[in-house]
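Lab meeting minutes (informal)
Scribe: AK
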Amino acid sequence: MVNGVNGVGGCSDGGSSSGSNSVSVTQARELKRRRVDLLSDDGVETHQNTPQTALPGRRCFVTVGATAGFRALLDEVSTAGFCLCLAEHGYTTLEVQCGPDEAAFAERVARLSDDDKHGIAIRSFGYTGNMQAHILNCRGQAGVRPAGCVISHGGTGTVGEVLGVGAPLIVVANPTLMDNHQLELAESLEEQNVAVHGRIGSLAAAIDRVAERIIQGTLDALPPYCPPSFPVPATDRITLFDWMVLTCYPDELAAQMHIADLDQAEADFAQQQQQAQQVSSQENNGLAQLD
């Protein structure tokens, strides 16, 4: 489950770091400025005596899921301030899966001027049948693309898919839902240091924290992604992440633990029966030899 944003050099409190390996937001932005200073007039990074193919800019993918809308999140990522924050960290593309609010989001984007977008290309759609492709575009890979980030609602399916791929993740709880499960999940993931807990009204701060984690975890230089084998072996189906998510649902966690105990008891009983049969067989063989 370790994938860079998941605690490799990350800060346990999610918002600050200390020690010789820590990198401030100011340093992160300075590194980005230095890279810009190395660009030639045609936008290609130059190195002395070392030809280098320029990598694409960072990508931010926002997803609200396929069921409930999340207008507050869509409204915040379609502002000039958010675009400026992305541009300062080297992002060039913002992709947004809007769910039922695609038309409203497109209308807000249409009202942004070119100056408001700060060079960010904004693309949107309602739904997608290939979520993983968009998530993979946010995963850094050495010599291919720098790490971006996924900003997701607190749906466990999406969160699990992003963490499985290894892309930096910001989880934003939808406050309009009937319960606080998304908030509990976001807080739990940040406590575990596997994701950033983003909050409506301060997503720029979450982008800053992701930038620090990208540098600390060297997420711009990950190896190629290798999808897991399918079907997943039975022994690997209940993962640490599954149990971590279940801590937000005490009744379901208790049920799963009870099922696991029953399975273990059944396995122990079967093993005892097998051992008893082996002992009985050995005794019968001994008696036969005496006869």
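Next up, CB showed the second protein from the same session:
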Amino acid sequence: MLLPITAAMTAVFVAIHLYIGRLRWLDVLPRHRWLSFSGGVAVGYVFLHLLPDLALHQRAFSNELGLSDTLAESMVYSLALLGLVAFYALERKVRLSRAKSRAKGKGDQYEDHLEWVHASSYAALNLLIGYLLLHREEGGWASLTLYFGAMALHFMTVDHGMREDHREAYERRGRWVISAAVAAGWLLGALVTVPQVGIGFLFAFLAGGIVLNTLKEELPQERESRLWPFLTGTGLYAALMLAGEFIA
């Protein structure tokens, strides 16, 4: 039963990547409202799922690698910090490249190699997201549904932003790369079980990228933000998660 359900969820993720440009209601709705709502959901996901999952991977490091609890904790959060710094450095290089291109009168674009590095970084995140549909630390249908909802909303906002910033590159190549990655992640999860320590290393590193993307893409700029949609998104996600805990 789990495979067909998660396959359908993966198909929804792929559809979001491929057809985000056809979701006209995203352009009709005031962007600052749904972006603020999405930011609230994303913050709820980071604090109520992502960070607790890091703690679970810390225990796996301690048990399977024979590390002390303190050393395992330091390793997990150092990997997350390294991931955040790496993704930040990439974003900074992209912004600087685009600024140089505009200064030279070549338009809002960046070097071809950065386009592939940028797409590859999102593909790595998507590979893990697809895999975790089948191999999350926390089981149960309520947890799976909340994970799916948070990731779908995350994809909608991030893809919408990527398409606005790099429309030609996204339409021509980017959307296909990240769509293939999330499908490949699900397929990998259906065929094999990666050792928990290996997933822990990858998850901790990419967690830093997820946190950065949440802050960069989903929390609106000060002039665009709306407090009540943001609080609604955070409160709704937290309430659903707590309800799921009680049901489980």
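CB comment: The two ends are 18 Å apart (CA to CA).
No objections, moving on.
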